[in-house]
Amino acid sequence: MSDQLVPGRPAGRTRARSVPLALAILGLLLVALSITSLMLGARPISVSTVRDAFLHYDPGMTDHIVVRQYRLPRTILCLLCGAAFGTAGALIQASTRNPLADPGILGVNAGAAFAVILAVGVFSFASITAYVWFALAGAAMAGLLVYTIGASAGGATPVRLLLSGVAISAVLGGIGSSVTLLDPQAFDSLRHWQVGTVAGRNLAVAATVAPFIVAGLLLALIAAPALNAAALGDDTARALGLNLSRLRITAILSVTLLAGSATAATGPISFIGLMMPYAARWIVGSDQRRIIPLTMLCSVNLLLAADIAGRLLIYPDELDAGIVVAFLGAPVLIMLARSARTKTL
Amino acid sequence: MKALTHRFPPHGRNAGQQVSFRIRTRTLAVCLALTALLLLLAFLSLTAGRFNTGTADVFNALSGQATGKTRMIILEWRLPRMLLAMLLGAALGLGGAIFQSLTRNPLGSPDIIGFAAGSHTGALVVLLLFSGGYYATAFGALGGGIVTAILVYVLAGTTGQQGFRLIVVGIGTSAMLSAFNAWLIQKADLEMAMGAAFWAAGSLNGLGFEQLRPSAVLFCLLCLPLAALARPLRQMELGDDVALASGVTVRRTRGLLMLLGVALTALATATAGPISFIALCAPQIARRLVGASSVGLLAPGLAGAVLLVLADAAAQHAFGRQLPVGIMTISVGGLYLLWLLIREGRR
Fold first, then answer.
1. A105 contacts in B (CB within 8 Å)?
2. Fewest C-beta atoms under 10 Å: which of A78, A126, A147, A268?
3. What separation in angstroms does the CA of B309 have from each of A189, B56, B190?
4. How far is A309 from chain B (nearest CA, A)?
């Protein structure tokens, strides 16, 4: 019990033994899914051809081009953005002590998406190197708003945060659609982006967002020990010498970097950040220093699996990863709402 | 003071009568004021527009003396649109008031519980997969909205913290349907997708008497049973036990009222596309004006009509180009919801 009062060292070691095993399984799954992601699609490609595409690249072979130009960027984006959306969710959940948090549901992705719509529809920026900055600014504003509501006296109840997310998304979505409805060209390019998909991006997109996402992930890892103390409540955390406002700023900054740049790359994808922190907690208990890295691993696997499933479900057509994730995640949200544990929160 | 006496009903027969009488006067005054405001706005919206018409023109047109272009513009373009705005606004206000009373939660409005996303899905399926016309789309929206509302209620269950569950289940269902909607829009060809997106914005553009007549008939048909259920609704606000004790068959009444609430909201959505947040805001505004926790149905209905006429006028004239009215209501209504949430947190 006394263990709980030391910041950064909460109880919850009962499951510690299973951690290496879980890591090994998830790591293997990651490798397997990545290879599968390079192989599967409207045009199935064998493992040996995939290997050749990397070792003996032949620009004349269609299969090699498909692997290097289409499936590789797609897989890399799954790795980057899966980790980004998942970790952003884990961070919001931990720093607002709110079990139903996710950058998508709370409107952070909507903030980024709105800014991208402005960039593309009003200012006619077509390149991600330009509109990623808009996305970051939009995510920052929405994130600040969420934290303002979350931090108001006594802390926000989960449902109030959720509703503020609904309100933020509604307002931004409304104004955003008035922009796109007036401009058919912007509408056309944005409707493909707005579903949330990793398909049809090139390596340059991944390279543009990679630095932001890596920075965001590092910040999240740095913040993890402090999040353990913050879980004990504002007063206790302060008594333990935790600088709460610094933690909040770190969290907002990290969430902004992660959700903003990932949304710019794939479009808004919800629910990864809701589900995967739960999965991670289920495996390792309540220590954020373990939850955060494990969430990254789980989220990457989830987005890879969703993207692969999307290619197979309505073969030879494709279902976008964002839709697959939403159809997995929304039932989870509903189940959480129905479960006894969250009812008391 | 008034709110206090209402919350803690004083003992004794006289005191009780006094309170209910005082509230009724204020409600009556608010309703009269809202009606006056509505008429004024309606008149103004008949005069306003790109084609210049003065007060005299409107009077002439309404009394049947105007001719030619003036007559056509005022009577055939502006009048049906204004009447539709009133009618649909009232329908949304009533639908919202019913839901908010039944869930005893200001946020239990059809917007939050996934109705809008469901009717959007229904309309998109009809528009994009079956390339249906206006009436088929309206029908699709109706079906989608009702199915979604039923689904959300069933999933939320009836026990425990109903409000909380209802809202979260509604958000989850909406999220799923929105993802599906985005996919449908992405798969369709550009022109069809633009058309669907315009529908989804919620607009009164291009609607006339042809749409007004069936809507008005339906609205009246829905209002008749609603008038009969207004009193049981008020008793149910005091709690199921109180209502049961005063002879209300709670289960059946709740089912009927929900059906009416859904139908009223669906009427507006089917006619004009999803017009968000009027159902949420109108009862809230009515409550603040009346100053009581129980406001009945008339004031929210009138408030809804005022809001939609106002929003439509703003959408038509305020930005130099015509915007869909749904975009006005979703932006302003969403900000209002945010304000409500922040204010609730400060308390």
1. 171, 175
2. A126
3. 34, 21, 32
4. 16
- Contact partners, residue B320, CB within 8 Å, separation at least 6: none
Residue of B210, B197, B143 lying closest to A174 (CA atoms)? B197
More confident residue, B262 or B159: B262
Dihedral of alpha carbons B46, B52, B54, B57, sign: negative
- As a whole number of angstroms, the distance between CA B229 and CA B161 comes to 25
The residue written with tokens 């995939």 in the block is A50
Q: Are A71 and A202 in contact (CB under 8 A)?
A: no
Residue B327: pLDDT above 50? yes
CB contacts of B176 in chain A (<8 Å) are: 326-327, 330-331
DSSP secondary structure letter of residue B270: H
Cβ atoms within 10 Å of B200's Cβ, excluding its own? 23
Residue A219 sits at the vertex; the CA angle it makes with A217 and A223, to the nearest 5 degrees, is: 115
Which two three-digit tokens encode residue B96? Answer: 């919202």
Judged by average pLDDT, the poorest of A159-173, A190-204, B161-175 is B161-175
Chain A partners within 8 Å of B197 (Cβ): 177, 180-181, 187, 191
Instruction: Give the mutation candidate from A181, A192, A271 for the B interface (greatest B CB count, under 10 A).
Output: A181
Residues in chain A: 345
- Taking the CB of residue A62, how many other CB atoms lie within 10 A of it? 10
List CB contacts of A110: < 8 A, sequence separation 6 or more. A104, A142, A165, A168, A169, A172, A173, A268
Tens digits of per-residue pLDDT, B292-310? 767 788 999 999 999 999 9
pLDDT single digits (tens) A176-221: 888 888 888 888 888 888 888 998 888 999 999 999 999 999 999 9
| Residue listed under structure tokens 């008429």 | B39
A-B C-beta contacts closer than 8 Å: 155
Note the pLDDT of residue B302: 95
Query: Does residue A316 have a cis bond before it (omega within 30 degrees)?
Result: yes
Contact between residue B324 and residue B315 where contact means Cβ atoms under 8 Å apart: yes
Indicate the pTM of the whole model. 0.85
Of B157, B168, B183, which has the smallest distance from its Cβ to A320's Cβ?
B183
> Taking 50 as the threshold, does the pLDDT of residue A288 lie above it?
yes
Of A263, A343, A325, A323, nearest in space to A100 by CA: A343
Chain A residue numbers with beta carbons less than 8 Å from the beta carbon of B173 are 330, 334
| Rounded-to-integer distance, Cα B197 and Cα B181, Å | 10
Say if the Cβ atoms of B341 and A163 lie within 8 Å: yes
* A105-143 residue pLDDT tens: 899 999 999 999 999 888 888 888 999 999 999 999 999
Minimum distance, in Å, between the CA of residue B82 and any CA atom of chain A: 22
Q: How far is CA A180 from CA A109, B117, B174, in A?
A: 18, 19, 22
How far is the alpha carbon of A72 from chain B, nearest alpha carbon, in Å?
A: 24
Over residues A234-250, the mean pLDDT reads: 86
Instruction: State residue A174's pLDDT score.
Output: 87
Question: Rounded distance, CA A142 to CA A165, Å?
Answer: 9
Q: Enumerate helices (H) and strands (E) in chain B, giving the number of each.
A: 15, 0
Q: Which of residues 111-130 of B touch A (CB under 8 A)?
A: 112
> What residues of chain B, 181 to 200, have a C-beta less than 8 Å from chain A?
182-183, 185-186, 190, 193-194, 197-198, 200
Nearest CA-CA distance, residue A338 and chain B, Å: 7
